[in-house]
Amino acid sequence: MKQDYRLAKGGRIDRARPLSVTFNGRRLFGFAGDTLASLLLANGQHLVGRSFKYHRPRGVLSHGSDEPNALLAVDRGPGRIDPNNRASMVEARDGLVARSQNHWPSLDFDVGAVNDALAPLFPAGFYYKTFMWPRAFWDRLYEPAIRAAAGLGEAPSSPDPDRYAHRHAHCDVLIVGGGPAGLAAALAASATDKSVILADEGAELGGALLHESSATIDGAPAAQWLAETVKTLIGRANLTLLPRTTAFGYYNHNHVALIERLADHLAAPPPDLARERLWQVRAREVVLATGAHERPLIFADNDRPGIMLAESVRAFINRYAVAPGRRIVFATSGASAYSAAADAKAAGVDVALVDIRREEACRADAAALRAMGCEVLTGHTIIGSTGRKRVSGLIVAPIDGQAKVGARRTLDCDCVGLSGGWTPAVHLFSQSRGALRFEPAIDGFVPDRAAQAVRSAGASGGTYPLSACLTEGFAAGAAAAGAPAARSFAASATRVGFQPARALPTSRDAKRVKAFVDFQNDVTAKDVKLAVNEGFESIEHVKRYTTTGMATDQGKTSNMNALALAADALGKPIPQVGTTTFRPPYTPVSFAAIVGPSRGSLFDPVRKTPIYDWAAERGAKFENVSLWRRAWYFPKPGEDMHAAVARECKAARGAVGLFDGSTLGKIEVVGPDAAEFMNRMYINSWTKLEPGRCRYGVMLKEDGYILDDGVVARLAPDRFHVTTTTGGAARVLNHMEDYLQTEWPHLDVFLTSITEQWAVIAVQGPKARETIAPLVAGVDLSNEAFPHMSVRACRILGAPCRLFRVSFTGEVGYEINVPSDFGRAVWEAVYERGQAFGITPYGTEAMHVLRAERGFIIVGQETDGTMTPDDVGLAGMIAKAKPDFVGKRSLARPDLVAPGRKQLVGLLTEDPNLVLDEGAQIVENPAMPIPMRMIGHVTSSYWSANCGRSIALAMIADGRNLMGRTLHATVAAGFASVKVSAPVFVDPKGERVHG
Amino acid sequence: MAELAGSASAARRQPALAAPPVLWAGVAIQVLPDEARFSLRLPKAAAATAAEVAGFSLAVPVNRYAKNDQRWSARLGPNEWLLGGPEGDGGAIAAEIEAALAGQIHGVTDISHRQVAFDVAGAEAANILNAGCPLDLSLVGFPGGSATRSILGKAEIVLMRPASAPVFRVECWRSFAEYVHAFLAEAARDCPARE
């Protein structure tokens, strides 16, 4: 239970609720209200990880979401190991298991630390320079080795068992950040009748007020003001408060993405609770109150465990009642660290402070701290630090007026608080495409011109005094709610202002020390200078060459320092160098939260026909066709696919087959101009097609290539029942609507998708008529009354039916269209009736074989988006008398009429048992030198049980002139001889279809 | 068997989706019984002056829902209405519309079997729908009497809110019904369990 560094009193932790967590196998104790970072520090555990490149020992740098070092794997049980959690953002809870990363064999002894000694070998651009030659090493050696070394943390290896929710929301005002500015904005905005959402990344609202022990607001201690304000806000029904919620992406039209963490902080989350919820908020107005990030100071070995940000020291003491050290030295170039030092001293810690600034710049603050009994050194620089796994001293030296570094002195300490000033968190404003402006007074970029309805308030806008943050926040909230109002807040004075510090002056050789700028990516000051020396002038190039700011923390603590260093090296002012672009996400977002519910059965809709269950109950194998799941074949016990398909094909030609065609796209085209519309959409003519008759239609794109095909029935003079391919249904309807709405809005014709209104039961084969005859009423099935390519409205088993006499097999065939709810009952009745004839259900594979035997094309198989009607032998269908149709003019393009285009032919292999690969290339002479000329490719290839041999369709250059020629198709082992034939293998005259 | 062929009761209807109600504190999701549904289209000029046809109110603004007795209409576009009524009235509805619009340009298509409908009701209903529907479903953004095409996750839907009570009607194509139902049921887990 002992927590060596826990203060006896104070903090917002709940001492009545003790808890324990396991870190690297060791049990550590803390209290509810702790973060993993504060708990580790309370237990004296400063060393929490190894750095990315040099494997240097690292500790907690920050108390907030900008933490670059303390990245831990959190283990919540099987499948729930989550790498790279910032210790400062993980709420401690009883039983939590965490581990440090990036070391082997252990955190304390890490072999990878040899990289630190070899650092001279790893300058900026090391990879580009080193892994150039020899070329042969790229794939086998360099890439695998670099990959093995890259990355931080271990990716989970099993599926994530947790739930992740999504939610869209709309509001009048979205406030990002629940610190003083954000709370004041919420007070103002929620006092109106507008809907307001306040999102804050912390577990508790309050931001910096949560560790404010001395400030007062309107006469009350800040903590009391905070408690009363939060109580007021909770009572506002028009305000949604979202703690533990990070706004991470700002997109167009004030579309802001938030990630809400719902479950990780609970010891026993309810089973249905989502772990995280991704919010997509569309806000009329956005108020950004995202605060500012403190900058570390840049000096040699500024990364030892125990060295952290000054304000974070203050937060650990005041909010978590943890003294991160027994003797803390603050090193600062600004005023805010004096507050931290004073709070540390008040908490009973031994404190000293080193200020880069000269005495006259900080006289009052220095005097106040000295009066508390602390040593304060002004006009000093930091030369370096001592210690290894924990800082043991800070080496300082005076600098005189000529910037000359004096005698060194080491201040013993076990913790250092750094403050190099502050950087407004303008990330979201920049993501919203707002322009930034460099403000010399605060040495940072601040929001300038907004591109969307967004305002910044408080520190994120460059305003640091507490009273101004509150006043600004209130005004921003009121204005965003459309009810401009002002309110002034009386708050105690805030220590603000700092002297911009770059790499601190040193008497050591700056080329031989590591002064870290980007802690997470191990980028040092000399790396930035080297990049500039090597000719990288754009800050975007410097960033990529050195990788500064490219880690998961996106350079929150480092960007300003890095670009200021680059500006110095370039000899240009900062505004001329500019800043890199801020991109989402603000902080890392789990992939699972982005995926949300779209997993497993909800990954995509799985579309099933009314007959699906019947097929599944009979053991059918299914295949995916767009989103549909179609019966592929129906194996009998002991049958493989080959045997099942062969049996199904023989049955359809020998007796009768039964096929589920429900997925065919169907469009009802209705209106007085329906025939005219059809004439314009298809290559065929529809004017003379009589009601009750069907026609096979082909549709082109504007470029003259085949888009889709299908049988079209004319039900009435003003009504067509159009069928499309399964996969083309939506595409064809969109294509038609596009023309109707944009080109021909004057045509009176209406399009309705009826794909799912009708189940389609295809009955095909010599016994088809006898099979359905007893079931239908109101139709004469005789050949004379109901010939091939006809349609009749009738009834089947009492259900309304559109009965088509059509065939995609070349046999006598009917396609029974019944309203979908009747599909299964009618299917079962047909199946039962067909038993007498050996009716055989067949799947899509047999369907493909049967149509190929007759040479019918499938759009998307024989065609690939570059085939004209003539290419596939359908030129005869083009109605030449029509003045126009979509694609007509393109058919006259020189390249489409030139000789030598690929044409549809059949191929018969010399070895009748050889089934070619679909996609196999065709050559004239396999003895040609490589690269040999490829004159075509196989588009369809099957074993045909009806032919007793293999058959194939192919697209071959000038193929119709090559009938009878022997060509060669690629096979796995070389080439196979094939003979070009007409693309029809059964019933060449097409007589069987007429019965 | 020939007699069977024409009789009204020979073929049994099998609904696209049979799923028990999903009940959580704050939301109940139920598959609605079969209804007749038609897509009615009129030329723009006629649509502008359309009034009531066969008991369906057409003279409502785009994206509005209206119900007279058992028959309801949802205007989905300037010249498009989704019409609904009792399952047994399908034939009568079609005949009445044809009679009322005889001589006028129009298009009526039966889509009764294409559509599946769900009720999503309860205080949390809007939040549950907002798991996959990006619209503002508050009473301000989607007041009683609203109707629109939208999406739910990866499925297209028609969403209606007949009155200001938090009872939404979701319609989708039948093969998407399993997905839509499962999506809503998954989203409903955001609610506490029902006592």
List the helices and strands and how they pair.
The complex is a heterodimer of chains A (995) and B (195).
Chain A: E1 14-23, E2 26-32, H1 36-42, E3 49-50, E4 57-58, E5 71-75, E6 81-86, E7 97-99, H2 114-117, H3 126-130, H4 137-149, E8 164-176, H5 180-189, E9 196-199, E10 216-217, E11 220-221, H6 222-234, E12 239-242, E13 245-251, E14 255-261, E15 276-288, E16 292-294, E17 307-309, H7 310-318, E18 327-332, H8 336-346, E19 350-355, H9 363-371, E20 375-378, E21 380-387, E22 391-398, E23 409-412, E24 415-419, E25 422-424, H10 427-431, E26 436-439, E27 444-447, E28 454-456, H11 466-480, E29 516-518, E30 523-524, H12 525-533, H13 539-546, H14 559-570, H15 574-577, H16 591-595, H17 612-617, E31 621-625, E32 628-633, H18 641-654, E33 657-660, E34 665-670, H19 674-681, E35 694-700, E36 706-716, E37 719-724, H20 729-742, E38 750-753, E39 758-764, H21 768-772, E40 776-777, E41 790-796, E42 799-805, E43 813-819, H22 823-834, E44 840-841, H23 844-853, H24 894-897, E45 902-909, E46 921-923, E47 934-944, E48 949-957, E49 966-971, E50 974-981
Parallel strand pairs in A: 1-7, 8-9, 8-15, 9-12, 15-28, 17-24, 18-19, 18-24, 19-20, 33-44
Antiparallel strand pairs in A: 1-2, 3-4, 5-6, 5-7, 10-11, 13-14, 14-15, 16-25, 21-22, 22-23, 26-27, 29-30, 31-32, 33-39, 34-37, 34-38, 35-36, 36-37, 39-43, 40-41, 41-42, 42-43, 45-48, 45-50, 46-47, 46-49, 47-48, 49-50
Helix pairs in contact in A: 5-6, 5-11, 7-8, 12-13, 12-14, 18-23
Chain B: H1 2-6, E1 22-24, E2 27-31, E3 35-41, H2 44-49, E4 52-53, E5 56-57, E6 65-68, E7 71-77, E8 80-86, H3 90-100, E9 107-110, E10 115-121, H4 125-129, E11 146-152, E12 155-161, E13 167-173, H5 177-188
Antiparallel strand pairs in B: 1-2, 2-10, 3-8, 3-9, 4-5, 6-7, 7-8, 10-13, 11-12, 12-13
